[in-house]
Design goal:
407 residues; single chain; alpha+beta; five-stranded mixed beta sheet
Length: 407
């Protein structure tokens, strides 16, 4: 309360009637000095950084810290002392005030021209109004559509990755269908989600069908190889039985030939027949060994195909999960950027509470800091600091939805 009372007392003299009388010139003020009856002497001069003004017949004259009346008297006295003008009738008018400065949560901070009677409210209006998000986007109104596009694109890509993760997991588990209802929780158009789900379901069915056909093809070759092995094994057993019978027949024929009952050429024929059967048996044994090797290779190929397929699915799943999480991070980042763009431009709450306003003002004893309100009068050289606290902001419903979805 003490600060407010002191501030009111400090600003009291700067009413409309007493403003010019109390105003002290400073660097940046523009004054017009004229001498009645001397049209050529009228000059508009700016108070220099050293506080002086440059006038004909006087050169450099101090102006900073003087009122208009004091500067008029000083110029009059200087001209009289120089002897160049007798009894000069000097007028001094303030043409343009030095600027004030405003910073913080306004749209266009910086140095702005001062006009008599200005308040903080006027200053904020000249500075483009309150804008808590000025520092986050050079042109929020232009940045918002691009941010929204990026946000929507990342969500669509996230849904696509999520659908692929679900389909890969289903394929690993041996299922040829998936439930993609979880995709509907994403803030994406239902039409897009349905299209993604349909394409992913069809792709899963195609992948499962292709792998099943590949397995069935190998299993068919394995069946043929097993049939070949079984046939060769049966043929060898029959051939072995025939050889054994022929050996017995040779023994009987040899005994009969020794007794002269059977001719000797008969014995030779049977021996040639046995030799031929053994040759066929050896060839069948070789072919059986080859058939067994081919069968074993096909069985290993079937196992290897299944292992390689599962390994490829796991690697694909891992890569897709990484990509999905990357898109999740992109969604969160784009959502946060969208919140802080001009499309979600902060506005003051309609509760009557103004932002925090602080005025830095030069005084006789140095710069003082003054708590102010929107109706507080300001002076040239004032530095106005505007701070909008988070509890004074309101963002649209779209911003809240973006914030929730991005988490």
């Amino acid at each position: 309360m003490g600060t407010r009372i002191w501030l009111a007392a400090l600003l009291m003299p700067f009413g409309i009637n007493g403003a010019l009388a109390q105003y002290r010139l400073g660097t940046g003020d523009i004054v017009e000095v004229a001498i009645f009856g001397m049209a050529d002497y009228r000059r508009r001069v700016t108070v220099n950084i050293d506080g002086s003004v440059s006038l004909p017949f006087l050169g450099e004259a101090r102006a900073a810290g003087l009122s208009l009346a004091e500067l008029r008297r000083a110029v009059t006295a200087g001209l009289e002392a120089s002897g160049t003008v007798r009894n000069p009738d000097v007028t001094v008018e303030l043409v343009e005030h030095r600027p004030f400065y405003i910073g913080g949560d306004v749209a266009r901070p910086g140095a702005l021209p001062y006009r008599p009677g200005m308040t903080v409210r006027h200053a904020v209006t000249v500075a483009g109004g309150y804008d808590a998000l000025r520092f986050r986007a050079e042109n929020p109104l232009l940045a918002a559509p691009e941010m929204q596009s990026q946000y929507d694109s990342h969500w669509v890509e996230f849904v696509r990755r999520q659908a692929r993760v679900l389909s890969l997991q289903a394929e690993i588990d041996g299922r040829d269908s998936i439930d993609l209802a979880v995709l509907k929780q994403a803030p994406v158009e239902p039409r897009v989600i349905e299209q993604i789900a349909s394409l992913e379901s069809r792709d899963l069915a195609t992948r499962v069908s292709n792998f099943r056909k590949e397995r069935q093809s190998i299993e068919a070759l394995i069946g043929q190889a097993k049939s070949t092995v079984a046939g060769l094994e049966r043929s060898l057993r029959e051939s072995q039985a025939t050889v054994e019978q022929q050996v017995l027949a040779i023994e009987r024929t040899a005994a009969n030939a020794a007794r002269g009952i059977s001719p000797t050429y008969r014995l030779e024929d049977e021996r040639r027949a046995v030799a031929m059967l053994k040759g066929q048996q050896t060839d069948a044994t070789t072919r059986l060994a080859q058939a067994r090797r081919e069968l074993a290779e096909l069985e290993r190929r079937l196992d290897r195909t299944a292992d390689e397929h599962r390994s490829a699915l796991l690697q694909n799943l891992q890569a897709t999960v990484v990509e999905m999480e990357r898109e999740r991070a992109q969604v969160r980042s784009a959502g946060e950027r969208l919140i802080y763009t001009g499309a979600l431009k902060a506005q003051l709450r309609g509760t009557g509470r103004a932002p925090d306003i602080l005025i830095h003002r030069k005084g006789p004893d140095g710069t003082v800091r003054l708590a102010a309100e929107e109706d507080t009068a300001i002076l040239p050289d004032d530095v106005i600091e505007i701070v909008i606290r988070p509890d004074q902001l309101v963002v649209g419903a779209r911003a809240g939805a973006v914030a929730d979805a991005a988490r």
